[in-house]
Amino acid sequence: MSSGLSRLTASHNAQLITTAVVSGVVVGSAILGFQKARRMYRVESLKESIPDLDEEHATQINEYGAASSVFLPSKEDERSAALAARARNGDYDDDLILEQLARNRVFLTDPGLAKLRSAFVIVVGCGGVGSHAAASLARSGVSKIRLIDFDQVTLSSLNRHALATLADVGTPKVHCIRRRLEQVTPWTHFDCRNELFSAQSAESQLAALEGQEPDYVVDAIDNIDSKVALLEYCYKRGIKVVSSMGAGCKSDPTRLLIGDISMSTDDPLSKSTRRRLRLLGIHSGIPVVFSTEKPGPGKAQLLPLPEEEFAKGQVGELGVLPDFRVRILPVLGTMPAIFGLAVANHVILEITGYPHEYLPSKNREKMYDGILGSLQGSEERLARLSGFAEQGLRIPITQDDVGYLVEEVYHGRSIISGLSTKLALVRWEKPEGEFIDKRTPGQYNSLLKMRELVLMTKEEATKHEKEVLKGAKGLEEVYGRETVERVRGRMEEEEVFERFR
């Protein structure tokens, strides 16, 4: 009797537990269902609150000052613009924004995302690089973006532009980006400037937006005058800026680096930018995205204009603006996107304070200093051997030059043995004739050129100096024909690349 009563009690308790669990599941499902329904209702309410368009819109002057239907926004664009206007005025559920930014939120944490959402970023240049940068910044949560570009979307833009479609051909790039991104992040405030950036307009174009100074400036310009003007303005006024060097003629994404402008090499745009900035007193302090990929046989390259183009008249008349680019630069559509995403990534990490360390220079400055000192000593010994006082001798080689030769030309290995330890740079051939400039009284300058140097181990350099530079042995006698040909080929290669520095 007692055992039967126990079974009945246990069965009753199990029923109570089961009922409680089922009730909890039902209540939880009801709550989640209510929240989902509420969220869907908010979204639909926002969409339904936008009035449908009527035929009268077709005759109105559009935002570009034209009445042609070619430039008129589509009905979807109009609805998106209306939704964006409401969202910017605060009529957009913040929970929906946070849900859209959920992945960034858990990565950057709430404080980091808050910094990004309150940031004001200016993107100068809205082509292949700038459009991808702007799109990533908006999708990541930046709430205020100023877009500056004078150009329009062309058919040739579509191989690399992040947002342009056939319908956008002929429209300003800044408005193309704004219209597309309003459909993605309607709460973002886009300040569009369909203008050419220049030194004369820099103050107004980089001015505060609604009282907020820019947190970061993205340089995605491919015109050297505008690029230098922007970087100089930002550098001298303490405005944070990151610059994209040339993506044209590049194809190797593994060679992309982020570092100081003083370390950027193997790129005509980078070379011109560095030289112009140095004349303005700016040697370093500007982060850039650049590629160390070298040009070579079979690779795309910037070629002179065909003779038939010169025959048409003044080359300057071929450009959209005076002194602006008139040639088509070969561009693989993927590379501007990679540059633009790298730029945006840098801005996001900087604004949010997320830890990041770049290693473009391999942290080998001390080694470069040692190699430079060794080279200085070698030149002084040669000068003394030739009857010059070595005191005060100067060589035209810098630490940056040493780093370039070691890493880019000789890939960190001896040209003789292939070893990578205890390295030294030394003249390859015995200097002939005058190799010391003695025009300044009391000051001797070596006429050494970078392409005259080879990388060896210290032991090999000591032997080389004794037998070749100071002795009477020939190069083939010491190293053999194969090694001499290898060195000659490397030097000819460097002579070609030297123009990019």
From TrEMBL:
Q: Does the keyword Transmembrane helix apply?
A: yes
Gene3D superfamilies the record matches: NAD(P)-binding Rossmann-like Domain (3.40.50.720)
| Compartments where located | Mitochondrion outer membrane
- Chain ranges of the THIF-type NAD/FAD binding fold domain: 103-359
Molecular function as annotated in GO? ATP binding; tRNA threonylcarbamoyladenosine dehydratase; ubiquitin-like modifier activating enzyme activity
The UniProt entry lists the main location of this chain as mitochondrion
Q: Which UniProt keywords apply?
A: ATP-binding, Ligase, Membrane, Mitochondrion, Mitochondrion outer membrane, Nucleotide-binding, Transmembrane, Transmembrane helix
Keyword Transmembrane helix carried by entry: yes
This protein's GO cellular component annotations are:
mitochondrial outer membrane
InterPro entries this protein is in? Answer: ThiF/MoeB/HesA, ThiF_NAD_FAD-bd, Ubiquitin-activating_enz
Q: Name one Pfam family in it.
A: ThiF
| Residue spans crossing the bilayer | 12-34
Give one GO biological process term.
cyclic threonylcarbamoyladenosine biosynthetic process
Topology with regard to the membrane?
Answer: Multi-pass membrane protein
| SUPFAM superfamilies named in the record | Activating enzymes of the ubiquitin-like proteins (SSF69572)
Family (UniProt): Belongs to the HesA/MoeB/ThiF family.
The record's function comment reads: Catalyzes the ATP-dependent dehydration of threonylcarbamoyladenosine at position 37 (t(6)A37) to form cyclic t(6)A37 (ct(6)A37) in tRNAs that read codons beginning with adenine.
- Name of the featured protein: THIF-type NAD/FAD binding fold domain-containing protein
| The organism of origin for this protein | Delitschia confertaspora ATCC 74209
